[in-house]
Amino acid sequence: MSKVVLITGSPRSGGNTGHLASKFEKAAQDAGIEVVKFDAVGLNMRGCYACNGCFQRGACVVEQKFNAVADAILEADGVVFAFPVYWYNIPAQIKALWDHFYAFCVGQKDLSGKKAALISCCAEPDAGTFAGVKFAFEKTMELLQVEVAGEVLATGLQDPGAAWGTEWADQAAALAEKFA
Ligand SMILES: Cc1cc2nc3c(=O)[nH]c(=O)nc-3n(C[C@H](O)[C@H](O)[C@H](O)COP(=O)(O)O)c2cc1C
Fold it and tell me: N or C end of the chain: smaller count of CB under 10 Å?
């Protein structure tokens, strides 16, 4: 059975990110994939301190909340990020967690062979709104030697509920096949 870590990062409960993430999660579970979820907003981490103490006592000696995330990723076959676009970029809450991926480099953890996917949403109709998010995601995964298995970049979603019944919701569910 494959295992996927799902990291969500929207402070708006019942919002579009949550809906798209839940579509992925349900489809993954229906396909027999174990989904381990972390909510970056609830975890409320501070970013990386660049102390280079990674994996000396857990994955992070300072932000110990990252340790469970790191352990889950090391055990998993894949990782899926789901978050809205904030000012053409990654929301601060999820960026703080993401920065701790530095530990995999310093700790020389081999992530090759794992897959990653991105689910993101924004209000504007233009797919170019995702340029910053897409670049950061793809370059991060390239550096970590993680294969990008798919991206769902959902435009035109402003208010909570906007994602319901859209092609984006179907695409988020279809992403699960990439991890089966
Ligand atoms: C602080 C903030 C910044 C945002 N910046 C952008 C942006 O740069 N471009 C855009 O299209 N939408 C932007 N949005 C809109 C959200 O991306 C959009 O409403 C999304 O559907 C929210 O997802 P959620 O329902 O999961 O919170 C922003 C929203 C907030 C709260």
Answer: N
The minimum-distance atom of ligand 1 relative to the CA of 158 is 19
Residue nearest to atom 28 of ligand 1 (CA): 86
pLDDT, tens digit only, all 180 positions of the chain: 799 999 999 999 999 999 999 999 999 999 999 999 999 999 999 999 999 999 999 999 999 999 999 999 999 999 999 999 999 999 999 999 999 999 999 999 999 999 999 999 999 999 999 999 999 999 999 999 999 999 999 999 999 999 999 999 999 999 999 999
In angstroms, the Cα distances linking 1 to 21, 30, 76, 124, 148 are 20, 12, 10, 38, 20
Stretch (H or E) spanning 172: helix 167-174
> CB–CB of 136/100 below 8 Å?
no
Choose the residue to mutate in 23, 85, 133, 152 for probing ligand 1, maximizing ligand atoms within 8 Å of C-beta: 85
Task: Please tell me the CATH superfamily of domain 3-179, with its number.
Answer: Flavodoxin domain (3.40.50.360)
The pTM score is 0.98
Domain locations in the chain as residue ranges: 3-179
Atom 3 (ligand 1): residue with closest C-alpha?
86
